[in-house]
Amino acid sequence: MNVFVSDTLQDLEEKGLRRELRTVESAQGREVVIDGKRFLNFCSNNYLGLADDERLKKAAAACLEEQGLGAGASRLVCGNLSAHRVLEEEIARFKGTEASLVFSTGYMANVGIIASLFGAGDMIFSDRLNHASIIDGILLSQAKWKRYPHCDMDALEAMLQKAQGYRQKVIVTDTVFSMDGDIAPLDKIVALAKKYDCLVMVDEAHALGVLGENGKGVVEYFGLQDQVDIQMGTFSKAVGSFGAYCCGRKMLIECLVNKARSFIYTTGLPPSIAAASCEGIRIIEDDQQRRQQLWENTRYFVKRVKEMGFETLNTETPIVPIVVKEAELAVQFSKVLYEQGLFVAAIRPPTVPQGTSRLRVTIMATHTQEDLDRLLAALSAMKI
Ligand code: PMP
User: Fold this and answer.
1) Pocket of ligand 1, candidates 178, 179, 352: which has the most ligand atoms within 8 Å of its Cβ, to mutate?
2) Closest ligand 1 atom to the C-alpha of 130?
């Protein structure tokens, strides 16, 4: 094993793909402290700045006091606490679905949902840029699958035309793509699904709290309530907390409770975390101002970064890729920014396709214009 491990690390090093952990010593805010130094944070998914919000902390603390720390067992044994139920009722109400189920993470939700609902005899159509957890769920399901080129509806339709004789067919897509920041054409996907008698599953991880008039995500953005069969999303991004959900018909949720192994064979989410997520959802619903500020910041930053001539792909959201192509270059630029107190992640393969390495800037509602200007000035000096 030692040879395998050292060869693997050396190989990654040579390709400029070796990754290392950095330790943040402060809370997740617009600023973070690393090695005792303050950095402006441009790489978290904490879009609304709720991860260190007093109201979420208070909700968690109150629940911690009442229900303790650990859930003690898996949900189906004795680890199903009232905090879980309250969150499930809240997210179902917020999303306007019959029911919902909380999973411990988004990764586990995707793996559990896909592998329990689909299997041999089924066909899954998956956008080429879908999140790794969707891909892992598909692999675990043992269903047949086809990847369609990113957001290419003609290619998807051609695949759908040919797919016959399957027990179930489903189109799975991220609604906001986590590394490109573009929005899936969900209106067209739903229309194709209807035409070809297909189910639709969406991952709203980066859309919840960000898109839609009330922050409910891309399903709301396109007005497709009741037209998407399986809606998954996370509490770990704009909600500022941790964990994930699946919502839809009551029957679907009951099936997941009985079949999704990543739900069944794991300890329930700590109840205090569920209480914090609930508070996050309430803030998203009540505080439209935060979302407006996020979009104001995003429009300001994207307009200027485009004017500088950077390749930002088709971003339509607070996720702003700045493509530099080579992995080494992305790392180098990230280092240059880091030296100036600007924390921007370099994203390399296998997270993104070969030759598309990038800086991934994420904008927050709590960034000030001065923060954005500091990053813009540093980028304009870099001549990518
Ligand atoms: N889906 C998407 C699109 C994501 O970006 C992520 C996390 N980066 C996940 C699922 C997994 O969510 P979690 O971090 O809660 O496991």
Assistant:
1) 178
2) 3
